Amino acid sequence: MKCISRYLPYLFRPPSNILSSSCHTEADIISTVEFNSTGELLATGDKGGRVVVFQREQESKNQPHRRGEYNVYSTFQSHEPEFDYLKSLEIEEKINKIRWLPQQNAAYFLLSTNDKTVKLWKISERDKRPEGYNLKDDDGRVLDPTTITALRVPVLRPVDLMVEATPRRVFSNAHTYHINSISVNSDNETYMSTDDLRINLWNLEITNRSFNIVDIKPANMEELTEVITAAEFHPNQCNTFIYSSSKGSIRLCDMRAAALCDNHCKFFEEPEDPSNRSFFSEIISSISDVKFSHSGRYLMTRDYLTVKVWDLNMEYKPLETYQVHEYLRSKLCSLYENDCIFDKFECVWNGTDSVLMTGSYNNFFRMFDRNTKRDVTLEASRENSKPRAILKPRKVCVGGKRRKDEISVDSLDLSKKILHTAWHPSENIIAVAATNNLYIFQDKVN
Fold this sequence. Notes:
Structural class: mainly beta
InterPro entries: PP2A_PR55, PP2A_PR55_CS, WD40/YVTN_repeat-like_dom_sf, WD40_repeat_dom_sf, WD40_rpt
Protein name: Serine/threonine-protein phosphatase 2A 55 kDa regulatory subunit B
GO molecular function: protein phosphatase regulator activity
Subunit structure: PP2A consists of a common heterodimeric core enzyme, composed of a 36 kDa catalytic subunit (subunit C) and a 65 kDa constant regulatory subunit (PR65 or subunit A), that associates with a variety of regulatory subunits.
Shape: globular
Strand order of the largest sheet: 1-32-31-30
Distance between the termini: 16 Å
Strand content: 35-45%
Number of strands: 32
Pfam family, one: WD40
């Protein structure tokens, strides 16, 4: 993969279709985006409990530029709204996370979760139908045995391609608090689900039993000082996982050390700069997302204002720190009043761990090249994302005279925010969710 910084002025462009709905409700807002391990499929979940799977177009000699386009492959209702009568609580259908399982055969499998229940879905194709049964007619009606005079051998007849999504497992009743993340282990047999105070380990074949591997709930809830915000398995060490907290710390645990991993092996936390201490320090230091690099050597964390890269062998400070929207530091008071300060932005690596991407406000998303230390701000919007158009870098003016191509920090639209992004595992193709719109950008093709 070429160095991203060479492409910064024209890094990604949209394909010929922007996937969206013109008028939307709260249920249409996209809440998670995830590529599968090959990048051929892209799944999105929304607040209405739906999962939409997009499949990449196959390359054709007549239209080679269509290779990056994704079209709808399957749509299904993953979760429904529920009501907990014991606690008098409504359980939203919103999809919090989607994680693909490595492909083992012709079918695809993915895990989806709302606040309480994780489901394993199988997505498969069917282009043939058996016909010629002895005891049933072609419409499935049972025949009168006395009318059967000959023995027939059933045959497979070709039919129009059908894509079916069927629930294979339902993992429920294991979380008291809201599930914020799920992660599939590299052993392809287990996965973990994480809520505010506990992490549970599941076997993909067993739905009625899970093992609690982290529990930070205090005996007295009044003594609660932090909650778990995200967790992820190491990409190739099945015994290792990390979880982040609302206090801005990351703990690395080894499941070989003990059955209950309350005692961590490594603790990553950056000492706070006293000069930046304020009323909002604890809120903005809360980590909203944590990701292992593909190599497994580094961690990436996202707090409210920054993205940080940590070396697993260096716990006392991050290896790199990138400012996402430092110009908002002076606006923290108003961001607190309108609850924007509690927004949970995600972050992703590119396939070679050389570039980081995360979202911001005004439908801006940011990219940071670790090799050249260059960064760029791009915008996902209908106005500047016409098919085959080149995305132009955007700049935010903090003070003084504003240039023609700059936008003032006071005129940023805080209701338009990029919380969820995904990067193709091996190519320069990204998916960006902006409210109810899904934008897919690809590297410039000559």
